[in-house]
Amino acid sequence: MRQCKSFFYILFIALFSCEPLVTTFEDVEKAVLYEAKTFTTSPDPENALKVLSWNIRFGIGRLPFFGDSCGDRTVMTEKEVLNALELVAAEIDAIDPDIILLQEVDRESKRTQYIDQVQWLLDHTDMNYAAYASMWQAQTIPSDGIGRIDAGNVVMTKHEIESAERIKLPLRTDQDPLTQMFYLRRNVLKAKIAIPGQDNFYAVTVHATAFATDDTKQKHVDKFKKVLDEMVINGDVFVAGGDLNSVPPGAETDFCAETDFCDEDACADDVFHTDTDGGPHLEGSYFENFPNEPTLLQPLYDTYNTAISLTDAFGVDHNTHSTSEDRFWDRKLDYIFTNINVASGSGITFQGAIELSDHAPVGCTIILE
Description:
The chain has 369 residues and is an alpha+beta fold. The chain is 21% helix and 26% strand. Strand 5 (129-141) and strand 6 (147-157) form a beta hairpin. It is globular, with a radius of gyration of 20 Å.
């Protein structure tokens, strides 16, 4: 009976609403631009910019959520969301970046009480401008009480955003048509920023697939690099990064070896899929070219400067797999790349932000030419 009610509810919305049930997006389209209600004076960057990249987990901190942390909740209270956002804003102001690359930011979503988190963060930090590109926009998601959703990537900056565009990424091919219809539509967000002394400066962010079992992750990384390569050809300067959901080159190839991360991450009632050797793996831990996953990002490392070098990625502060008390994060998934110089020793993973998201913010200082 519940399934029937859900079906007729969806049918009613589809027939009588002025909005499409699910937004599908063009290959390239304009991003949504924002301004803070009150501007903060932007300092002259002189010859350097501080950059931060952070997946903020739609502003719910580490609260258990359906599908990613053994939780069964799909809707948070307003107090829970605002409390988490206040902590995120405080961390941003403490770090004091010039540019922020954000992923998993909600606006007008039932799960986060319809708070426009882009505008909220602008109005509660020293940032002045933002560009938004949705990766999941639907009037309603007909499962698990998720309901209305709008979540995506954000570029936030103290300096004016002159223009911004949303660039479509390929869809997963390992889903049935109905699931794919209501599933995420990921993107690369590219924003042109008016940096004094820079004619063509861009900030670019991406959030690659996490759970695909086909080669979609490879396609997302390849497309991200293609966007950057084209900018180099055009003579543009950029800082780019985000949540690539990929471990760095040289990482362990078997996450279920000595330390069984697949088993540790599993929830009691998780549905596993089985690979060719018969082992159980969570959705997304294997895909068609999984043995090559630790090489997915090698072309980016070979072509561009990175905030955290491969040596540092396995050092004291940036270990990919770590169970020691001083390093909470056990896998590196978040990155910053640029086609100009990174200030020596400026790359950092903010390990202290463990209660604010399921991702650690990463940052660096880039040197303007």
